[in-house]
Amino acid sequence: MDLKEHTFGFANSPQGMQWATTSLRQLVPRNLVSWSTPWSLRDYATGTLPRWKWCPRINRYAKRERALSRPQRSARPALIATLSPEATARKKAAERVAVGKRLSSNEIRAAFLEFYQQRGHRVVPSASLVPDDPTILLTIAGMVPFKPIFLGQRQPPDPPRAVSAQRCLRTNDIENVGRTKRHHTFFEMLGNFSFGDYFKEQSIRWAWELITEVYGIPRERLCVSVLHADQEAYEIWRDVVGLPEHRIVRMSETDNFWSSGPTGPCGPCSEVYYDFKPELGTNVASGGHETSVPPATAGTGILDLNDDERFIELYNLVFMEFNRDTEGRLMPLQARNIDTGMGLERIAQVLQGVPNNYETDLMRPLLDKTAELAGRAYASLSERERVSAKIVADHARAVVHLLADGVQPSNLGRGYVLRRLIRRMVRHGRQLGIEQAFTEVVAGTAVALAADAGYLHVAEHRARITRELQMEEVRFRQTLERGEALLAELLRENRGHISGEDAFELYDTYGFPVEMTQEIAAEQGLQIDMDAFQRCMEAQRARARERGRPGSIDLPAESELVAQLGGNGTAIDRTEFVGYEQEQVATARIVALIVDGKAVQSLASVPEGSLNKVQVILDRTPFYAEGGGQVADTGELQLVQREPRIALRVADVQQLGNAWIHTASLDGTSADLHVGDVVTARIDAARRRRIRAHHTGTHLLQAALRQVLGADQVAQAGSLVDSERLRFDFTAPRALTDRELELVSELVNQWIDEAHPLIVEHLPYPEAVQRGAIAMFGEKYGDVVRVVNVPGVSMELCGGTHVRNTAEVGLFHVLSESSISSGVRRIEAICGQAARDFLNQRDLLVRTLQQTLRVTQSAELVARAEALLNENKLLERQAASARTELAKALAMRCLPTQQLRQETGKPVALLIKRLDQVDAVGTALGSWDNDILGAAADAILSQLGDRGIVVLAAAAAPSAQQVIMVGRCTPLVASETPVHMGRLLQAAAKRCRGGGGGKPTQAQAGGRDATSLDAALAALQEEVSRLLQGS
């Protein structure tokens, strides 16, 4: 066959030639043709371009065509048609037919949970993305909530089986997000777990049944991997499941062995893979696959499961059967466990027949919304633009779930992860051409998707999510353009790298997360001097608190401060905290003075009038620096070496590395204070006693909650301890009942009365955890930790200040118990002197109420209050009835009505009136509402016969701008004329800057401009007259 047959009449068309050339360029591999040399389809058709050497794919098509008869060739689509963009899109769509049952993501998730629930598993709701585990920043895997059980730190549930759909978040491979088919930051992991119950064979049987029968994926599309030494798993797949041997691949420990760390529980794993191209068979080298094949598998007939174009891992089964000791020996576990994971996004890709995870129903709405904001359709985006859209979509999911779980944008820890994700969204939105603020819009779609998936707490926090995104995006956009200009200048200089100082300036001044700078630089083939950057960031990384604090130094400024005070921070790394034992240090030396973020040697050098506060670093201090949920101490620093005896009031203390920064104000006008001066540091001892009582009370409260609700039901999710109260946030599946709350209070007060001594020890972290110590939420721990133990009651890792004996707590009283998010409750309580002050105030209030309500016993207060409420309700009803009757009377004074005639000549009675201006009585009536006006309109309409129209209006109150209107007309008028009360009142209300509506026979409306009411009623009367008379 000559290709001219297919190009005749087309090759000479300039438009067709350009289009065909573009199509061929997409089809022919770049390594076969030098595209720098201009050529066209005409060159190929006329033989100018060597066919067999340069275009084998086209010639293979031609050879197939030659074998057909002319009628057959005539019936086949032309080559040009098969190369068109539309035909290519249709071909790709045909190749992406869903395999198995076509299920939505919600159906997939529900089917997984139901499958294992029917097999004795307890359905465990998704835990927060903020884990109850001090060793990790975020919930990175489905097994994280069960880690204490696997490590033997917590007893397994009864029954010892669980199933969950766990929200997870990882950023370790964030650079691949949007660029590959399957990488995400936020994802859902479906998993079933066995704690010393069923093991390998049952796990494999159920996994196979779920995939092939519930999800309906054909077995010929599946293959599995096993650890090379796990003969048991191999035989189960081969003999029990019946999988052919050529679809069972043995792999190394690098791929198929799981461990929790250098020591501890571990074991082999087996993974189930989906095969997109089973027709290639097992010999990957000779099967025509175009990706590179590892030498170990080339030509051997062994499946290359690392071929991401052909295979996708669906289900990972971990068989936790060993314990690795410190010498690396594997010892069998007495209780063997199962930990599995199936990525919801991956199984959805397969069952929904889409080319990547992003185009599943989990994320496609986000892609479409992002493209819409860019004024495009997603299908029209280029590959680079699609990467940006995918990043925006992925990060939108991550951001809304982090915010819903209580994470706030900041420069540390989880807050930094959140801030980085938001700023990457903004940057990639700009690359799509979205210039306006948009993150809250995309997040709105993400919130809706989350709520549809059953994560209702995300929707409950929508307002806060929107607010945080607005603030964060505005904050970043204020410096983004200038930062991008600076970065572009650095890239143009092309020095082979970007200095750490420049990267820090982008972070410090323009808010560019260093990872974003790395990403942009990598696109240009440049690197960042991270060692220099880390030196600039040393002070920030030393502090891991998640929220801003009054008087604290902002994070970018800390690094500059460290440089001023000694470069590597050693000059300020000197504060010795003695506050556990002492409330005063008689002689503390001033190591540094800081004013407005700058280190000074003397306050005398500070210009007069600019000294609002000073930050002081001492070599020794009794002041507790804020941390672990406990507020900082307050007190004073007093100069002792010379006159005048300057006194500074300390309002806040924060930790910078190992230095304590005391934020203070001068008590007086003198500012003669120097580095090296000696001061007496004295805390407010009475305030410290109240704080200590609340902190110990918090420990007792957690112990009581764990005892009343169950230790496995309560996990700390945050706390605040100050002198006025304590606040404890904890995970719980429901609100506490009144009786449960009562039991908690009784337990705490019982332990207080029993006068338990507190024992404080410093232990190696593993030993402390082994003894049962509970880690504090959000804290980071070193090798040696401080353990606060109330023997037989509570044991926690804690760096805060506490009473010596529970009797010092004095009294415990719960103020409130409430919900702050889905699955997270909050208790606020008071202890000691704060509780006594509260009860004294309440007693005074009760006595005052008794005198006011004239009752002798406090027990009579409720009955008296209920009686007064009932009397008030009766009086309100009587007053409303009287006002309604008065309004009716006023309306009747407006009769007779205006008489109009319909176009047919039939008379219609019309009354349009402001009742609040009828006479002095109308003015004196005061407030008006729709019910009063409606009753008056109904009364008048009843007097007008079969053909009547009534519109009454009034200002809601004499001095208010709000107006109300009601309209009525008889059914006969509505049926015989164009009069529609809903539309008429809606138009009138617009004149008063309002709106309304209703039915043809009755309507109501309102507005915010009473000054326009008379004009609106006049226009309404003209419109009614026009409609009735047909003009």
From TrEMBL:
<comment type="subunit">
    <text>Monomer.</text>
</comment>
<dbReference type="Pfam" id="PF01411">
    <property type="entry name" value="tRNA-synt_2c"/>
</dbReference>
<dbReference type="Pfam" id="PF07973">
    <property type="entry name" value="tRNA_SAD"/>
</dbReference>
<keyword id="KW-0547">Nucleotide-binding</keyword>
<keyword id="KW-0030">Aminoacyl-tRNA synthetase</keyword>
<comment type="similarity">
    <text>Belongs to the class-II aminoacyl-tRNA synthetase family. Alax-L subfamily.</text>
</comment>
<dbReference type="InterPro" id="IPR002318">
    <property type="entry name" value="Ala-tRNA-lgiase_IIc"/>
</dbReference>
<dbReference type="GO" id="GO:0000049">
    <property type="term" value="F:tRNA binding"/>
</dbReference>
<dbReference type="InterPro" id="IPR018164">
    <property type="entry name" value="Ala-tRNA-synth_IIc_N"/>
</dbReference>
<dbReference type="Pfam" id="PF02272">
    <property type="entry name" value="DHHA1"/>
</dbReference>
<dbReference type="InterPro" id="IPR018162">
    <property type="entry name" value="Ala-tRNA-ligase_IIc_anticod-bd"/>
</dbReference>
<keyword id="KW-0963">Cytoplasm</keyword>
<dbReference type="GO" id="GO:0005739">
    <property type="term" value="C:mitochondrion"/>
</dbReference>
<dbReference type="InterPro" id="IPR009000">
    <property type="entry name" value="Transl_B-barrel_sf"/>
</dbReference>
<dbReference type="InterPro" id="IPR018163">
    <property type="entry name" value="Thr/Ala-tRNA-synth_IIc_edit"/>
</dbReference>
<keyword id="KW-0436">Ligase</keyword>
<protein>
    <recommendedName>
        <fullName>Alanine--tRNA ligase</fullName>
        <ecNumber>6.1.1.7</ecNumber>
    </recommendedName>
</protein>
<dbReference type="InterPro" id="IPR045864">
    <property type="entry name" value="aa-tRNA-synth_II/BPL/LPL"/>
</dbReference>
<dbReference type="InterPro" id="IPR018165">
    <property type="entry name" value="Ala-tRNA-synth_IIc_core"/>
</dbReference>
<keyword id="KW-0479">Metal-binding</keyword>
<feature type="coiled-coil region">
    <location>
        <begin position="858"/>
        <end position="892"/>
    </location>
</feature>
<keyword id="KW-0175">Coiled coil</keyword>
<dbReference type="GO" id="GO:0004813">
    <property type="term" value="F:alanine-tRNA ligase activity"/>
</dbReference>
<keyword id="KW-0067">ATP-binding</keyword>
<feature type="binding site">
    <location>
        <position position="802"/>
    </location>
    <ligand>
        <name>Zn(2+)</name>
    </ligand>
</feature>
<feature type="domain" description="Alanyl-transfer RNA synthetases family profile">
    <location>
        <begin position="103"/>
        <end position="841"/>
    </location>
</feature>
<dbReference type="GO" id="GO:0070143">
    <property type="term" value="P:mitochondrial alanyl-tRNA aminoacylation"/>
</dbReference>
<dbReference type="GO" id="GO:0005829">
    <property type="term" value="C:cytosol"/>
</dbReference>
<dbReference type="InterPro" id="IPR012947">
    <property type="entry name" value="tRNA_SAD"/>
</dbReference>
<feature type="binding site">
    <location>
        <position position="695"/>
    </location>
    <ligand>
        <name>Zn(2+)</name>
    </ligand>
</feature>
<dbReference type="GO" id="GO:0008270">
    <property type="term" value="F:zinc ion binding"/>
</dbReference>
<dbReference type="InterPro" id="IPR050058">
    <property type="entry name" value="Ala-tRNA_ligase"/>
</dbReference>
<dbReference type="InterPro" id="IPR003156">
    <property type="entry name" value="DHHA1_dom"/>
</dbReference>
<dbReference type="GO" id="GO:0002161">
    <property type="term" value="F:aminoacyl-tRNA deacylase activity"/>
</dbReference>
<dbReference type="GO" id="GO:0005524">
    <property type="term" value="F:ATP binding"/>
</dbReference>
<keyword id="KW-0862">Zinc</keyword>
<keyword id="KW-0694">RNA-binding</keyword>
<dbReference type="InterPro" id="IPR023033">
    <property type="entry name" value="Ala_tRNA_ligase_euk/bac"/>
</dbReference>
<feature type="binding site">
    <location>
        <position position="699"/>
    </location>
    <ligand>
        <name>Zn(2+)</name>
    </ligand>
</feature>
<feature type="binding site">
    <location>
        <position position="798"/>
    </location>
    <ligand>
        <name>Zn(2+)</name>
    </ligand>
</feature>
<keyword id="KW-0648">Protein biosynthesis</keyword>
<keyword id="KW-0820">tRNA-binding</keyword>
